Amino acid sequence: MIIFIVYLNFDQTWEIWNNAVRMNITNFVFLASQTPEAPLTTISTTEEPHWEDPGPFHVAYPRNYKFIMDDTPVCKTRDPFVILMVPVAPGEVKVRDAIRETWGNEKIVLGQVVDTLFILGRPGGADAEQVQEKLQQENQEHHDLIQSNFRDSYYNLTIKSLVMLEWLVANCKNSAYFIKIDSDTLLHVPNLVKLLLDPSTAKQNYMSGLVWWHSPVIRDSNNRFFLPPEIIAEPEYPPYPLGMAYVMSLDLPRKLLGISTQIKPIYIEDAYLGMCLKRLGISPTEPPAPGMYLVAPTHPLSNCSLSKAVVVMTTGIPLMKNYWERTKDPDLTC
C-alpha cells in the first residue's frame, strides 16, 4: 500500500481528492496548511469546517459555516416587509454598485420597508487577500454584505442558498417575505410588493417564481447538470421555481433547513430546494399572471411587457439600468 501525504489548503484538498477518486487512488492523508486562501478575517484555520469528500454531484454542507462579515442593520434595528437577497461573487463590485444605484436603492415602496443585501462566500485565487480587503472597505461604506466562510464558486451555489436561509432564520423573525434574485436581473420592486400585499398571496408555506414542472434529470454526462441514476433515480425533479428568482414567506426557510437534514444536498441549487419542498409536502405557487418572471425574453422589452414584469433576466448592467429607468415612467402601461 502506498500512502500519499499532501500538504495543501482546503480548496486544493477538494480538487485533488476529486481527481484521486476518478483515478482510483484513495490512500491519502491530507494535512491542511494555512495559505492566502485560508479564512481571511477573524476566523482561524482551526475553525474552518471539516467534512468528508461529497463527490462530484453533492456539496459539502456540514452546517457549521461561520458568518465572517455581518454588521448590517437589516433585521436587527429595522424589520423590512421584504428582504431582497442577491447572491454575488466577491469580485462583482460593479454589479453591486449598479444594483445599489437602481432597484436596490428602493427603501419604501407602497408604504412598505424594503432592504437589499448581498450574500457571498470567501474569495479564492492568488489575489484573495486583496479582494477580501476591498470587500471589507466596501462593507464599511454600505453595511449590506453578508459573508460566510465557504469558498465562493458556481459549484457551491447550494451552500450559498442554505447559508442564506440560515441567516434569515437567525435574524429576520419579524419580516414577512424575502426574494432571492440573481445579480444579472432587473427587479421591478413595486410590482413585487404589490404582489405580496395582494390578499390572495399566501402568508405561509409560500414559494413562488417561474415554476418548472416535469424538469428532466439530465443523464448526458457531457452536460454540466448531469446527474446519474444512483444520485437521483427518478427521471424528473419535483417542481421548483427557477433559481433566477424565487420569493418565500419567512416561515419557510426554517422548514427547508429542517428537512434538508434528510436530503443530501446536490449542487443544482433550485432543484434541491424543490426536493426539500416535496419532502415537506408543499407545492410551489405559480405567479398569478403570465409574464411576471421573464427568463429569456426578446430584448428590448415593450412598455407593456415591462409594466407587468416582476423579474427580468437582462444582458448586463446597461440594460438593467435602462429598464429600471423606464419603470419610473408613470406612462409605462399596456
Automatic annotation (TrEMBL):
Any one of the GO BP annotations: protein O-linked glycosylation
First-tier enzyme category under EC: transferase
Localization per Swiss-Prot or TrEMBL: Golgi apparatus membrane
GO-annotated molecular function: N-acetyl-beta-D-glucosaminide beta-(1,3)-galactosyltransferase activity
EC number(s) reported in the record: 2.4.1.-
Pathway: Protein modification; protein glycosylation
Family statement: Belongs to the glycosyltransferase 31 family.
GO cellular component: Golgi membrane
Protein keywords: Glycoprotein, Glycosyltransferase, Golgi apparatus, Lipid metabolism, Membrane, Signal-anchor, Transferase, Transmembrane, Transmembrane helix
Coiled coil (residue ranges): none
Organism of this sequence: Solea senegalensis (Senegalese sole)
Residues of the signal peptide: none
Name assigned to this protein: Hexosyltransferase
InterPro entries: Glyco_trans_31
Topology term for the membrane: Single-pass type II membrane protein
